[in-house]
Amino acid sequence: MMRRLQKNIGNSLANIADDIAQGFFEITHNSFALVGLAVVFAVIMLTARPDLRQAGEAKLMGWLLERQEAAIGYTEPDAVDRATAANPKDLPRQQAAVAYWLSKKYGIAPEPLSVLVAEAFEIGQKVKLDPTLILAIMAIESGFNPFAQSPVGAQGLMQVMTNIHHAKYENFGGKLAAFDPVTNLRVGVKVLQECIARAGSVEAGLKYYVGAANLESDGGYAAKVMAEHARLLAVVSGRAPTYQPTVRPPLAIPASMPADMESADKTPEKIASLAIS
């Protein structure tokens, strides 16, 4: 009797366990089926609605960046795209030599100088100006400081009068582009072209560029530019000249002054009123 009772209890417990296992399997199976349906539905929706997919990706990326910032601090992977810099080793040999030489002389990192050197060589070829002349002007005007500003408002690498030549910056988004090194270089070269065309020669054009067209002297500006130009030509030819490192040259008289300046009055008001447009 006792054995029969124990057997019945054992069978009952086995049946209960079997029912529980079967129920658990069915619930789990149904849950997986629901998850699968949800995934399929989500894929269909994202395929049919690219805007939802993009929004989801952006939200997910934002969440991941937030987690990363919380773990290791502020991050911005695309910041390098804004940097005006390049590896000088990627430049042609002559351009790399110029970048390294200018870097040592003016105490400027070779990476941003590499971009300026490459741009000067490219634009110089297009407009038929010696690129080392363009670089020499930058050296004398600003010492390769892209944020330089003279007392009368000449700005950037080439020290162009931004308020006077604002129209030349319209294709680059406005006057604030004067502080973008490459844009300032391009606008400065345009002004230099106009000055040389009006004056008839490079040396006379430099006198126009610095705003001393009808003055007795340009304060030695053209001579300084041409001397630096000659040194850079020597670097290009493989005969790098010796020099004493320069911390920052003083700002010259602002560039891009008028060709028809008749007065020696160099006050900011007089220069601005006579500047070419």
The helix-and-strand class reads mainly alpha
CATH architecture of the largest domain: Orthogonal Bundle
Summarize the biggest pleated sheet: 2 strands, antiparallel
Helix content: 55-70%
Shape: elongated
Quaternary status: single chain
Rounded mean pLDDT is 79
Number of domains: 2
Rg from Cα: 35 Å
Q: Helix and strand string, N-terminal first?
A: HHHHHEEHHHH
Could you walk me through the main structural features you see in this protein, from its secondary elements to its overall organization?
The protein folds into two domains: 2-80; 88-274, Lysozyme (Orthogonal Bundle), CATH 1.10.530. 59% of the residues lie in helices and 1% in strands. It is built from nine helices and two strands, in the order αααααββαααα. It has a two-stranded antiparallel ribbon with strand order 1-2. Helix 5 packs across helix 8 (221-236).
Nutshell version of this structure?
This protein has 277 residues and is mainly α. The chain folds into two domains: 2-80; 88-274, Lysozyme (Orthogonal Bundle), CATH 1.10.530.
